[in-house]
Amino acid sequence: MRNIIIGLFLFLFCLSACSPPVKEPVALIPLPDSVRIESGSFPLERLKTIQMPDEWEKVGEAFAEDLRKQSDLSLSLSENIGDIRAEHNDEFPKEAYVLQIRERQITIEAGDKAGVHHALATLQQLVLNASEGKLPCLTVQDQPRFGYRGAMLDCSRHFRTVDELKECIRQLSFFKLNVLHLHLTDNQGWRLALDKYPDLAKKGSEYKDFPELSGKYYTKAELKELVAYAEARGVEIIPEVDLPGHSLALLAGMPELSCRGGVFETYPEERPYEKRKRMYENMICIGNPQCFAFVSDLVDALVEIFPSPYIHLGGDEVSTSVWETCPKCQALYRKEGMTDYHQLQDYFTKRVREIVRAKGKTMVGWDEINTRGAASEEDLLTVWRNDGIEQQKKALASGIPIVMCPKDPCYFDFGYARNSTRKVYEWEPIAKDTPEEKRHLVKGGQGCLWTEFVVSQAEVERMLYPRLCALAEVLWSKPEKRDWVDFFQRLHIYNKVWEKLDIAYYPGDALDEQWFLPAGDSIQLLQPAKVQTDMSAAWGGYNPEYVFDGDLNTFFSTSYAPQKGNYLTLTLDEPKEVHAIRVVCDDSKEYLSEADLLISADGQHFRKVASFTEDGKAEVKLKGESIQAVKIEVTAPHFSRLTIREIILE
Fold first, then answer.
1. At which of 358, 375, 392 does a domain end?
2. What's the rounded Cα separation, in Å, for the pair 184 and 192?
3. Rounded distance, CA 13 to CA 101, Å?
């Protein structure tokens, strides 16, 4: 019987794949495997009750609660036959479901809690997209491509309240994303209260000069409440405590875990970098056994709160400078016969893996833990550096499972100029030349939102959406079914849904936005000229010359936020008659709002002709003046990176 049911399920999927595509009357994101539209409709006014097996009751309650907030529908759970009826079928593949809407009833069939959640998420989208108060009769057969479909949110640099995290969870759930990776600690804040170390969260979130930002962290009760809320919506929360680097906030609360001792402070992003102390001493002391005792206590606390099988312990961007002069670290270095101080991090990785495994969990780490082969098949790697291809190949060759989140295109703290929605949509998580027997090790992917420059919940949502919708489809739908133009059209239909979901999405992102990665060779300028700036280009070659190459798809991007007095000057080899000047920046976040535009006839003496507007625009009309240089001068500190697409001289 089991083989018959599985065979029937797969037959229906294959049948739909071989059939001509059906034009859907509504937009669904991510695109389901199969949608068959049938005659008739179900009136929404009849949608009043939902019947669930006991083990799925919490999922039904969460669906009803969220639907009440997003529409005027009020559903109640029923022990009798409901207007929505869910049936449990153990023979279904993992996370798979079938949703049928008929004129008198809506039925769901699934094999697990995840499957019934996905069916309800599809129904929720249909309801919010419904026209004339009716749902079309249809059958949806669906299951995801990848099992791990997530988003990482940095709550250390800028804190998110529990209610804001709940809102994030509702949004992830709506698009069938099933993992929320919470970055709970970093140099800028320790956001996790620990019973055994009651002063740690207080001291690790205290900012001497910013009392209004201080004292923000999560209690054990709050996190347990959040876990339950997420579980009912099909979202698994994976906690991350970043070690052994990125630990300044930890050392502010427990300086005894440092190599040099003394006083450490935690600084918010709002404090200028040059006014922060001991930023290059943010590593815990690997030679101190007390550090491993602390990690054991920490893992115990995380196990009590989070049912996820995974615990993320960071491992990225770890310097060895303090270890190299630390007597305890030097003693361990000699004892273990090490030849490179980076091997101290490998020692740490291997020891904490055993601590995590002893608690029945799997350790997750950023891909640096595998730089020298310290990661093992028992771990899970989050691959973030560059495009991730090199790190992916190295991990798969050793049989190490991975989650892909390369910063191009999965870092959503970058503006939409660098990582556009289209760039996300056209990304393929598995390298083309990956052997078939290794492909299963790519468990999925996630978008990452670091919050150095992202302060409010509205900013969080604007940076995530609609890019996270594109990622949801990449991770859910089969590659051969994805089509950018079709997705863009469905996304456009969602304009009315954003309001119902109360998501502050980014409305720009042109249809023809292309994937841009710097070429690495010399940049051909529109005409002989020189571009000079005192702002450092972002790693990867996003150099200043791109502001004058005649291509709006390329750009100059800075590593850090511009400060007062920073400049960029374009000097032509020969003067040119100019009638208008326009500076085009990224319009999503990384633009100048306080800066002046100046011109020079001789390249030496400048005069101001315009100021940048609050939304990052600068343009001026001239009367055919002879110009040799154009200068952009920052007049006040900014709180975002800068991306300039082009300086246009007309």
1. 375
2. 7
3. 18
Query: Rounded to an integer, what distance in angstroms lies between the CA atom of residue 235 and that of residue 178?
Result: 4
Q: By residue range, what is the domain housing residue 616?
A: 529-649
Return mean pLDDT, the chain.
94
User: What backbone phi and psi angles, to 5 degrees, belong to 393?
Assistant: -60, -40
H/E stretch holding 107: strand 106-110
Tokens of 539: 């790693």
- 192 and 244 together in one domain: yes
- Assess contact for 647 and 548: CB atoms under 8 A: yes
Number of Cα atoms under 13 Å in the Cβ half of residue 127: 27
* 625 domain-assigned: yes
- Give the domain CATH number at 346: 3.20.20.80
**Residue whose tokens read 């949110």:** 153
Which residue, of 112, 142, 172, is where some domain finishes? 142
**Is residue 141 within 8 Å of residue 128, measured between CB atoms?**
no
- Which 3 state secondary structure label does DSSP give 105? coil
Instruction: Determine the average pLDDT of the residues in 223-230.
Output: 99
What's the CA gap between 420 and 513, in Å, rounded? 7
**427 belongs to a structural domain:** no
- The answer to whether the beta carbons of residues 2 and 91 sit under 8 Å apart is yes
**Backbone torsions φ then ψ of 50, nearest 5 degrees:** -140, 130
Continuous H helices in 400-528: 407-410, 421-425, 457-464, 467-476, 484-493, 495-501
Residues 342, 274 within the same domain: yes
Among 336, 337, 323, residue whose Cα is nearest residue 259: 323
Domain presence at residue 306? yes
**Contact between 28 and 86 (Cβ < 8 Å):** no
* Separation of alpha carbons 203 and 184, rounded Å: 15
**Does a structural domain hold residue 445?**
no
Partner residues linked to 532 by β-bridges: 569
Q: In the prediction, which pLDDT does 511 show?
A: 55
Q: What's the CATH number where 119 sits? A: 3.30.379.10
Burial class (CB in 10 A: 0-12, 13-18, 19+), 605: exposed
Q: Which residues neighbour 474 within 8 Å (Cβ) at sequence distance 6 or greater?
A: 424, 425, 427, 428, 429, 445, 482
The DSSP string of 599-636 is EESSSS-EEEEEE--TTS-EEEEEEEEEEEEEEEEE-S
Q: Tell me the residue type at 508.
A: G
Per-residue confidence (pLDDT) for residue 81, from 0 to 100? 83
Are residues 78 and 193 located together in one domain of the fold?
A: no
Nearest in space to 626 (alpha carbons), one of 574, 576, 570: 576
d(CA 226, CA 166): 7
- What would the pLDDT profile of 457-511 be if each residue is shown by its tens digit? 999 999 999 999 999 999 999 999 999 999 999 999 988 899 999 999 998 876 5
Closest C-alpha among 636, 620, 633, 624 to residue 582 = 620
Q: How far apart are CA 159 and CA 205, in angstroms?
A: 10
Q: Can you give the length of the chain in residues?
A: 650
Contacts (Cβ under 8 Å, ≥6 apart) of 19: none
pLDDT number for residue 1: 39
